[in-house]
């Protein structure tokens, strides 16, 4: 029986024998593509080639690509762990042809590999072909069906609809019919009783798709019409985990050697046995799947966070923690300890797991511990909601409350439902779903971009000349209109441009497109599908003329100073803190720089000073820029350039060198380090477990920062009469102020104690209730303390009603405190305060036993207090 490692290698060897270039997997986390957060298919890294935006280097390519599917139309998250074949992270084996071979070869080689090489039983195989779409003028894919008839009987060739057998990159772009290969893994007796053809694409767990052959031959335009592609493309994707299941005689992907080593370690750590309890089995499968996703995301530079791709990873991690918490009894972090077995199973194919083991473990452990605390908080909040609901004589908690638990506290709905069921209660799902839909609509509206079709004026490749020039002559290759947040903009692609398109943390250039009689502002430049796209608010009068494309030179140079400084900073951090430091992200704008790096403790003030001194030395040395374009990556690494995990490098790279600082970088840089002037670190912080962030300024920004510090120091000295030892004087002043505060506090306590005695002495009893009223000028916090003291000193069964109308400087406030027997009788301090707050032109609220309201009309205080007493029938 072939192992997973052997299967992966056999695929590469087979297509290498068919003259395919074997390329490494691209990172699972996508950078520099605004349309995609994660690599969700093998074709993602070849999108630029398919779109015709970059030249074809190899017409035949094959690889094993790590993918992630958890959002959009490819959302398998809720199925993961519950069935046998869905995953978040998975490997996709694929082969591509860019304008070379087409349907015949793709089908012939797929059959040869599956049947002749891997020895799969051909009687168990089925192929689907596109049935056609009369509405779009598309006929059945008889060509593909004809090639399949060489290998399969006609009853194993099944027509598929547009949903299953017409592949599209998105709403627009390359598309075409596809042919799926399915395998029937059912026992012989079941196969004899019913045909596998009836089970294809019917979600049967043993009749599954293993390979999809996509025949891209059309381009979908914005109006929905199709036009033929100039160069046809073959794009195939085979699920590696499903292939392993088929070859290893298993009925579940989780029973293969891809997952079983991880599952067995989980079972050992949780004191359970896989295969004995359905819920525990699901939990172990979820954790085994999710640990792969989380580990690979971190190696590719995506840490868990509260935004975008980071939020997706945090959600996956929390889902795994929650399953361990609920079904495996895990109350302490443990997922991080699964990393050694993951490395054992996948480290050979993906050495980044080995290289970043410590970072992955620390990030996962901290995230686990944080969410376990969140779970405890959520359970306490849910307990309170259940108590309130039961007290109201109800058994259904509000869907709005359940959504708040989910959205604000990260408390999963299914855990809410589980706890409620155990207490004979349920949640209003319709309300929850309505809240979820509102959130989705908000997110969709915020991110919605309407794009028109590209209007192509001339064919050509967009060339970047900004390494050498700040301006150049340019012609428009294509343009289109877009609408974002109800704002109309235009995107323009030039045949050559000095504008740097946002990438690698460096923001895009701004500037102008200048013709004889007009000057257009370029407000941003971004990279989309490897095209540098210039954003303008209007189109030029004549789009066919030759323009002068000119960048904002001052902003570019400021940006370059900051970018070049990040290289020097990176090297200095490695010198001061150690060679474990590695860049984990950066942001470079004309105003400042931000540099994220791996390090496991706070960088001390002394270490920051050392780093600043080292960078300053390199700036004063005025090292010239040594730039090597199109250097073979092996030569660049031999030179000392460090490749970063999570980045996709081609066979040729650009190397940027300043003295001993050597980095692979596509950004723009200053001619010599002296132009940076100086660097000053303005902040250092933690952004995740094992990852720190430094924020800094350079050049003019560093000067301004220094001026602000000098001005602040000058003002402080003036405040203290220019004393020679300012720090000592301020320290003494703080100590004296603390002593004075203590004395004032003691005085206030005495006043409150005296006032309390007076109020209690004046208290009246109405209907068995002791009514304590305060009206006057005072500090609101002092009266709050007084109210709690009065309540605390009363007997448990004593009915005490405290109300206050307080004038505090220019503001005023109402306050109500009720003892527990009054709350039990149905009085509500929050309602009383809210109803009366309008009389002081304010608002407020609180809890049933204590509430406050603030306002600005102190003339209404007396009336407001009277209204509260009347409403409580205590006037």
List the helices and strands and how they pair.
Layout: H1 4-16, E1 21-22, H2 47-50, E2 60-68, E3 70-71, E4 74-75, E5 89-98, H3 103-117, E6 125-130, H4 142-148, E7 157-160, H5 162-165, E8 166-168, E9 173-184, H6 188-193, E10 207-220, E11 226-239, H7 240-247, H8 260-270, H9 278-299, H10 308-327, H11 339-346, H12 352-355, H13 357-391, E12 396-397, H14 399-409, H15 413-422, E13 426-427, H16 429-447, E14 449-451, E15 455-456, E16 463-464, E17 471-474, E18 476-484, E19 487-494, E20 496-497, E21 511-514, E22 519-528, E23 531-536, E24 547-551, H17 553-577, E25 583-588, E26 593-598, H18 605-620, E27 626-632, H19 633-639, E28 652-658, E29 661-664, E30 679-688, E31 691-698, H20 699-719, H21 726-762, E32 764-766, E33 769-777, H22 780-793, E34 800-808, E35 811-818, H23 820-824, H24 829-837, E36 843-846, E37 850-855, H25 861-871
Parallel strand pairs: 1-2, 6-7, 12-13, 16-20, 33-34
Antiparallel strand pairs: 2-5, 3-4, 5-11, 6-9, 8-9, 9-10, 10-11, 14-18, 15-18, 17-24, 18-19, 19-23, 21-22, 21-24, 22-23, 25-26, 26-31, 27-28, 28-29, 30-31, 32-33, 34-35, 35-37, 36-37
Binding site for Zn(2+): 563, 567, 665, 669
Enzyme class: ligase
Family: Belongs to the class-II aminoacyl-tRNA synthetase family.
């Amino acid at each position: 029986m072939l192992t997973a490692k052997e299967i992966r290698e056999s695929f590469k060897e087979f297509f290498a024998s068919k003259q395919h270039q074997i390329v490494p997997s691209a990172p699972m986390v996508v950078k520099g593509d605004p349309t995609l957060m994660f690599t969700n298919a093998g074709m993602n890294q070849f999108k630029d080639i398919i779109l015709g935006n970059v030249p074809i280097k190899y017409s035949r390519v094959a690889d094993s690509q790590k993918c992630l599917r958890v959002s959009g139309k490819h959302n398998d998250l809720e199925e993961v762990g519950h069935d046998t074949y869905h995953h978040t992270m998975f490997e996709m084996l694929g082969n591509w042809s860019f304008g070379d071979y087409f349907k015949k070869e793709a089908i012939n080689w797929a059959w040869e590999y599956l049947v002749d090489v891997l020895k799969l039983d051909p009687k168990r195989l089925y192929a689907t072909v596109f049935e056609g779409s009369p509405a779009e003028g598309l006929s059945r894919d008889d060509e593909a069906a004809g090639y399949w008839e060489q290998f399969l009987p006609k009853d194993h060739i099944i027509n598929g609809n547009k949903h299953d057998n017409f592949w599209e990159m998105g709403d627009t772009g390359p598309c075409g019919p596809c042919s799926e290969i399915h395998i029937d893994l059912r026992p012989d007796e079941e196969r004899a009783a019913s045909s596998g053809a009836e089970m294809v694409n019917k979600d049967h767990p043993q009749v599954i798709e293993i390979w999809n052959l996509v025949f891209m031959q059309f381009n979908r335009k914005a109006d929905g019409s199709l036009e033929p592609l100039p160069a046809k493309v073959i794009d195939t994707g085979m699920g590696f985990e499903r292939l392993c299941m088929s070859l290893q005689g298993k009925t579940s992907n989780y029973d293969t050697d891809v997952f079983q080593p991880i599952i067995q370690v989980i079972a050992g750590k949780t004191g359970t046995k896989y295969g004995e309890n359905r819920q525990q089995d699901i939990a172990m499968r979820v954790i085994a799947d999710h640990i792969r996703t989380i580990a690979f995301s971190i190696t590719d530079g995506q840490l868990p966070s509260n935004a975008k791709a980071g939020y997706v990873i945090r959600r996956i991690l929390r889902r795994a923690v929650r399953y361990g918490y609920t079904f495996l009894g895990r109350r302490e972090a443990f997922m991080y300890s699964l990393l050694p077995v993951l490395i054992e199973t996948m480290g050979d194919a993906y050495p980044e797991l080995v290289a970043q083991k410590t970072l992955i473990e620390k990030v996962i452990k901290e995230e686990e511990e944080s969410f376990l605390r969140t779970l405890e908080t959520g359970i306490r909040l849910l307990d309170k909601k259940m108590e309130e609901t039961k007290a109201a004589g109800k058994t259904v908690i509000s869907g709005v409350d359940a959504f708040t638990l989910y959205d604000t506290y990260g408390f999963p709905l299914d855990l809410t439902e589980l706890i409620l069921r155990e207490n004979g209660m349920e949640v209003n799902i319709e309300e929850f779903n309505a809240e979820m839909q509102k959130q989705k609509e908000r997110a969709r509206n915020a991110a919605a971009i309407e794009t028109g079709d590209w209007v192509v004026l001339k064919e050509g490749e967009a060339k970047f000349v900004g390494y050498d020039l700040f301006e150049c002559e340019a012609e428009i290759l294509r343009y289109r209109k877009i609408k974002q947040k109800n704002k109309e903009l235009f995107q323009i692609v030039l045949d050559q441009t000095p504008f740097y398109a946002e990438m690698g943390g460096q923001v895009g250039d701004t500037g102008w497109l200048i013709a004889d009689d007009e000057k257009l502002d370029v407000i941003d430049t971004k990279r989309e599908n490897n095209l540098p796209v210039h954003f303008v608010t209007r189109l030029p009068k004549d789009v066919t003329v030759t323009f002068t494309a000119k960048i904002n030179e001052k902003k570019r140079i400021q940006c370059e100073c900051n970018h070049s400084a990040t290289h020097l900073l990176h090297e200095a951090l490695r010198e001061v803190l150690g060679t474990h430091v590695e860049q984990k992200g950066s942001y470079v704008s004309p105003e400042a720089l931000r540099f994220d790096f791996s390090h496991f403790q706070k960088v001390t003030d002394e270490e920051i000073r050392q780093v600043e001194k080292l960078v300053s030395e390199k700036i004063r040395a005025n090292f010239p820029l040594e730039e090597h374009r199109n250097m073979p990556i092996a030569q660049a690494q031999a030179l000392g350039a460090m490749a970063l995990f999570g980045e996709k490098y081609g066979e040729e790279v650009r190397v940027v060198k300043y003295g001993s600082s050597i980095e692979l970088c596509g950004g723009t840089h200053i001619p010599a380090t002296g132009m940076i002037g100086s660097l000053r670190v303005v902040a250092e912080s933690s952004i995740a477990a094992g990852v720190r962030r430094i924020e800094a300024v350079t050049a003019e920004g560093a000067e301004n920062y220094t001026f602000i510090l000098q001005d602040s120091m000058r003002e402080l000295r003036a405040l203290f009469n220019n004393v020679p030892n300012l720090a000592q004087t301020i320290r003494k002043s703080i100590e004296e102020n603390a002593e004075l505060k203590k004395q004032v506090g003691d005085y206030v306590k005495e006043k409150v104690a005296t006032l309390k005695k007076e109020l209690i002495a004046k208290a009246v009893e109405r209907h068995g209730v002791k009514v304590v009223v305060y009206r006057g000028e005072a500090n609101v916090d002092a009266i709050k303390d007084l109210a709690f003291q009065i309540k605390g000193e009363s007997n448990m069964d004593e009915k005490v009603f405290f109300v206050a109308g307080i004038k505090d400087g220019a503001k005023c406030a109402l306050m109500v405190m009720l003892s527990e027997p009054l709350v039990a009788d149905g009085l509500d301090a929050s309602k009383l305060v809210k109803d009366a707050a309008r009389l002081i032109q304010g608002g407020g609220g609180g809890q049933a036993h204590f509430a406050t309201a603030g306002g600005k009309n102190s003339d209404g205080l007396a009336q407001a207090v009277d209204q509260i007493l009347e409403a409580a029938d205590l006037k």
